[in-house]
Specification:
The complex is a heterodimer of chains A (about 110) and B (about 110).
Chain A: E1 5-7, E2 10-13, E3 19-24, E4 31-37, E5 43-50, E6 53-57, E7 65-68, E8 75-79, E9 88-95, E10 104-105, E11 109-113
Parallel strand pairs in A: 2-11
Antiparallel strand pairs in A: 1-3, 3-8, 4-5, 4-9, 5-6, 7-8, 9-10, 9-11
Chain B: E1 3-5, E2 10-14, E3 19-21, E4 24-26, E5 32-38, E6 44-50, E7 56-58, E8 64-68, E9 73-78, E10 87-95, E11 99-102, E12 106-111
Parallel strand pairs in B: 2-12
Antiparallel strand pairs in B: 1-4, 3-9, 5-6, 5-10, 7-8, 8-9, 10-11, 10-12
Chain lengths: ~110, ~110
């Protein structure tokens, strides 16, 4: 089965630093997502991306977050100035279509902000 | 507002026993419902989904789920649990076109 690939698997950073989390979605997919999971809590929606623009974002996704699809294969999440509370597992996902389609998730990037 | 509730945080069953994981949703229209499983160190894998038709849906790994509109539930079942089923299970509802809302998850422990 095709896979969503995320790098790095672990990222440690100092508070206030910028981080970029990288994802390679499945090649023919059209919808891209970022979710996060703080330890012991539920998986939370951050943002969805379709047709080279953000289609929906949550309250969590404030001005310090941005997403980009810089080329035909990568999908990145940038956190401009990290805070302690940004420590979480960040999952990238992609799907072929919208609402009823299966989301394919990557194995996640564990971000630790010190 | 749309929401998903998984009332059981942890469940422990013996290998070979039956399993039912509960999920209740709140959604105004016809829901699109999903169950995902997360093994340690892995991403989320889709077990099954429902969006119309037969209310009993079959998934991978021998799992099934039943949609009950009157109870706003979408419970996941398996007749005989295997040790490899130990994982965390998430129920989700598709909210609008782009967003999926997940429950808090149920961690399953399987005793040998």
């Amino acid at each position: 089965e095709p896979e969503v690939t995320q790098t790095p698997s672990h990222q440690v950073t100092q508070m206030g630093q910028e981080v970029i989390l990288r994802c390679v979605p499945i090649s023919n997919h059209l919808y891209f997502y970022w979710y996060r999971q703080i330890l012991g809590q539920k998986v939370e929606f951050l943002v969805s991306f379709y047709n080279n623009e953000i289609s929906e974002k949550s309250e969590i996704f404030d001005d310090q977050f941005s997403v980009e699809r810089p080329d035909g294969s990568n999908f990145t999440l940038k956190i401009r100035s990290t805070k302690l509370e940004d420590s979480a597992m960040y999952f990238c996902a992609s799907s072929l279509g919208g609402r009823s389609e299966k989301l394919f998730f990557g194995s996640g990037t564990q971000l630790s902000v010190l | 507002a749309q929401s998903v509730t998984q009332p059981d945080i942890h469940i422990t069953v013996s290998e070979g026993a039956s399993l039912e994981l509960r999920c209740n949703y709140s959604y105004g229209a016809t829901p699109y419902l999903f169950w995902y499983v997360q093994s340690p160190g892995q991403g989320l894998q889709l077990l099954l989904k429902y969006f119309s038709g037969d209310t009993l849906v079959q998934g991978i790994k021998g799992f099934e789920a039943e949609f009950k509109r009157s109870q706003s539930s979408f419970n996941l079942r398996k007749p005989s649990v295997h040790w490899s089923d130990a994982a965390e299970y998430f129920c989700a509802v598709a909210s609008g076109t782009y967003k999926y809302i997940f429950g808090t998850g149920t961690r399953l422990k399987v005793l040998a």
